[in-house]
Design brief:
alpha+beta, four-stranded antiparallel sheet, 29% helix
């Protein structure tokens, strides 16, 4: 019977322990729930650091991937450029072949640029070499011996005449060597001393009169070089200004410059319209090429320059120029070999090579 009380005490003790454990567990759960609700500073900081580290890792991963992509793109781009360079058409046109096509090669060098103005002008008779043949007194023309266009020597008879008052016969003779350019007489015609029977002109020298606009009048001086050209006629002539009129025409307000033009072959004719290019200043330049060396390539002024064994089309910057040459400010150095004439041949060859290689963009 003593066993029953002992068993009951044991059961009671176990039950108390169970209740205590259950209450303790419930208190722990409430405590954890409360901490979760309010958020422990330490736990919150740890969580934030973990999230930050994860975010940082993701950003670094994205940067690494982006950098890798950029490197890949750059490598591809460089590869494309290298590929383009390796396939760029090269001009290896020989100098001999270029000359066969009319091309010329020169070395770039310094020269003088002539500042010029182009003005209109016309060819005229040299009025100091013209003779007007008239009778000394009233007379009747009995015979005409010369016609327009005849070449006459000084002292040669042009016509025979008879005095209207004394019936004395005399001759009308040329006073100079020249050409009969006008005839105002016929057989049987009566002339007075004021009548001109013939005009004889020496055409071996002529005048070229140049009109000077107001702004050019102070710039043009005697002795300045001038080139005379005409669209249809003789080859250009290089001369100098021989005379500048001291007066300005009141009607046109233009000045006058004159050239005494030698015309031994009589190629120049009075009445021709000409263009006079007058050099009014000179300027030294470090690199000068003829105008024929500069061609248009890809909408830029270009000169073909010798680069090793090939020709390189090189864009150039132009400076001052005159009728024959142009200053190169950039793109060509003194001493370099270049194509001074015939660059269009190389241009055509380059365009052909680009088209065949697929670089005709």
């Amino acid at each position: 019977m003593k066993i029953i009380p002992h068993l009951m005490a044991t059961l009671l003790l176990a039950s108390s322990s169970t209740v205590y454990a259950s209450e303790h567990h419930e208190k722990e759960e409430k405590k954890q729930h409360a901490q979760h609700e309010s958020g422990s500073p330490d736990d919150h900081q740890d969580g934030h650091e973990e999230e930050h580290e994860e975010s940082h890792d993701e950003e670094q991963h994205d940067k690494d991937n982006h950098g890798a992509h950029k490197e890949a793109d750059r490598a591809a781009e460089n590869g494309h450029e290298d590929h383009g360079k390796s396939e760029e058409p090269e001009l290896t046109f020989s100098a001999e072949l270029l000359r066969e096509f009319g091309g010329e090669i020169a070395s770039a060098q310094a020269c003088v640029i002539h500042q010029q103005v182009s003005l209109p002008g016309d060819v005229r008779l040299n009025e100091e070499a013209v003779a007007h043949i008239t009778p000394r007194f009233a007379a009747k023309i009995t015979k005409v011996r010369a016609n327009i266009g005849d070449n006459i020597k000084a002292g040669e008879t042009l016509a025979a005449a008879e005095s209207s008052e004394t019936l004395v016969r005399f001759s009308l003779k040329s006073l100079i060597d020249g050409v009969v350019i006008k005839r105002h007489v016929a057989t049987g015609e009566h002339l007075s001393p004021d009548d001109t029977a013939f005009v004889v002109a020496d055409l071996s020298t002529l005048w070229v009169d140049i009109a000077l606009y107001p702004k050019q009048i102070p710039r043009v001086k005697t002795g300045q070089p001038v080139r005379i050209t005409t669209s249809h006629g003789p080859a250009p002539v290089d001369a100098r200004i021989d005379y500048v009129a001291p007066l300005v025409d009141e009607g046109t307000r233009t000045g006058l410059a004159r050239i005494f033009l030698t015309n031994k072959n009589r190629e120049w004719k009075p009445g021709m319209f000409v263009e006079a290019t007058i050099t009014v200043g000179k300027f030294p330049a470090a690199v000068v090429v003829p105008r024929s060396a500069v061609i248009d390539f890809e909408n830029q002024p270009t000169v073909f320059v010798r680069q090793g064994e090939r020709w390189q089309p090189r864009a150039v910057k132009l400076g001052r120029n005159d009728s024959d040459q142009v200053e190169i400010l950039k793109g060509l150095e003194a001493g370099e070999k270049y194509v001074s004439r015939g660059g269009f041949v190389l241009k055509a060859e380059l365009q052909k090579s680009e088209f065949e290689s697929g670089h005709n963009h």
